[in-house]
Amino acid sequence: MSARNRRLPRHRAWPLTRTDVAQCLGPHLDHVRELRFLTGDDSGDIVLGAAWVAPLSRAYGRGVHPDSVGCFVDVHPVAAADRAATRAVLREQTLPQLREWIERATTADETWRLTDHHHYWRLTGGRLTHGENMSSL
Question: CB neighbours (10 Å) of residue 66?
Fold first, then answer.
């Protein structure tokens, strides 16, 4: 991405590209409603996030547009100096886990799909951890 279109401070960088994600997810990328490259200065140790947005109304008496239901993926910026090492870990470990998470999300039972879910991957000191947070409606 050109520096003009980066939208990130020079000391921050995205550890993955759209191509990295597409190559790993393959046909599962079709289930991702939106792949977002976040521009915030600091996401802490979160490097990748995935969300399942349930098809339930969030406003009394209003429906939910179908485009707002499904899987969303967020690539968080990291320190530019850590980009290469982070990218290697994400490509090797995290993207295959993301592919599995999306596959499970799209084939889950109705009870699971009617609840919002968030899954985060964190990288701290070269060690990858991940976990799911469930949002009750």
Answer: 9
